[in-house]
Design a protein that fits this description.
Blueprint lengths: L17 H18 L8 H17 L25
Length: about 80
C-alpha cells in the first residue's frame, strides 16, 4: 500500500551547496551589469581590464552580508508607577 502525504505539500530535494549557488548567481548578475553589459571587446586584454576595474569598484563599496533580520531598536520603557515621598 502506498503511503500518501499531505495533498498540498511536495517534498523538494535541494542540493547541499544550493544556498551558495544562489549567492553566486546574484554576484555574477551584479558583475555582468557593471563590467560587461553594453561593451564590446577587441581582445582578451580588454576583458581582463574591464574585469579588474569592475572588481575594484565592487570591492570598494562591499559590505559584509548579514543573514537574518536586523535586531529591533531598543525602546525606552515608561515607568508604570511614580513613587512620591
Amino acid at each position: 500500500m502506498r503511503r500518501r502525504g499531505h495533498p498540498r505539500i511536495r517534498h523538494a530535494f535541494i542540493p547541499v551547496g544550493a544556498c551558495w549557488l544562489n549567492l553566486q548567481e546574484g554576484w555574477w548578475r551584479i558583475f555582468r551589469k557593471t563590467a560587461l553589459v553594453g561593451r564590446s571587446f577587441a581582445n582578451p586584454d580588454d576583458i581582463a581590464q574591464a574585469t579588474a576595474v569592475a572588481t575594484r569598484q565592487l570591492n570598494a563599496r562591499a559590505r559584509p552580508w548579514i543573514w537574518g533580520r536586523p535586531t529591533p531598536p531598543t525602546r525606552q520603557l515608561r515607568r508604570r508607577y511614580v513613587y512620591i515621598q
